[in-house]
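User:
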Amino acid sequence: MLLFKTSNLYFLFVWLFCSLVTNPAYSQADSLLRKVSCDCDSAVKIDIFRKYTYGFTKAPEGFGKIMEIKARANTVKTAFEEEHHSAWYFLDIKAIEGELVFEITPKDKTNDYDFLLYSYKDSATCASILAEKLKPIRGNLSRNDTNNLGITGLSGNVKNEFNGKGIGAQFSKSIQVKKGDKFILVLDNVYEGGQGHKISFSFLKEVLISGQVQDEEGKPLVAEVIVYDNKGLEVEKTNSNSKGNYEMKPKLNENVDYSLTFTADNSFVASEIINTNKLKDANTFANIKTVLPKLKKGSKYKVGNLNFFGDEARLIPRSKSSLESLYHLMKKNKELKIQIEGHVNGAGSKSSSVYKQKLSDDRAEVVYNYLVDRGINKERLSKIGYADLYMLFPKAQNDYEMETNRRVEIKVISLD
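Assistant: Predicted structure:
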């Protein structure tokens, strides 16, 4: 009898908490955090007209009045192991159609958010989920990766509609939607004492990208051209022809930085950032001219956007595309040997010379380890840190200049 009463008290506590955080008037002090609902039948309604972000939210706490998704076997990809700390959303697609993507970003990157997406049928949808009569159309239960800031969601550059438990892909496949479509989205943070999250919704658009690749003498090059998103994931790739010309039509997100990278035999890599916010009505990036410098023994090269967070040997997310292009360079040129050189931003820094040296060493080692892990022979690689001796902006005044100083460069040791 005592156990029954204790269980009821816990159940009552969870119900009261979820009722309070769902009520906008709950606390004026928490007014900057968006509400969450722990149950399907009181799901927070989000109207999606175009790009939109909801959150950061309060932390989901418990499973609410009803545990709609009960325990499942670990091998099931289409359901949580059980609800832990859930947040339910009702998504209504308004005045737009296209390929819907979203990112779920935890406030604390160590939190592990899973999600399931259901088509909303009618007022009985929540009951159908509870009775296990309605299956989700998308889901991701893979283990959190703090290197990716714990982010998960739907993306346009993946094939799997579902990713199961354990180590797996960060994103699941995007979904085509039209005006009037409705969905139920449920998030579950598997950890106790977690924090809130935000959800960023947007739509992909087909974009024409075209240009020409040349060497330093203006001669056309046959090169591999790859578009990476701002997480370093490959979106689409092609090759320039014998005249150096290329064309592709990837589906890109609104107002997001993408990396366009180029690799060719006997040439160093090139990379540039494109952003869909700069597109005109024609949705076209045309006539992009790219020059790939010839590989020369003893020469040093700056690798596109291979930069780091301040005071960390951790690459900013978009640098992953530059890492990949460097890997492709080493694969294309089998005899190439390089020295990986780490640098720090010392402008205005009060850190000791010992600290700066170690940080630059560690940054070089990050790139070294990445290439080794991808299968590049250690005999082709060496590494060194130069602290802040060779800053590109010795008197860095803004974030761009400071970030540019926090880099890795490549020196060609030999070509044969």
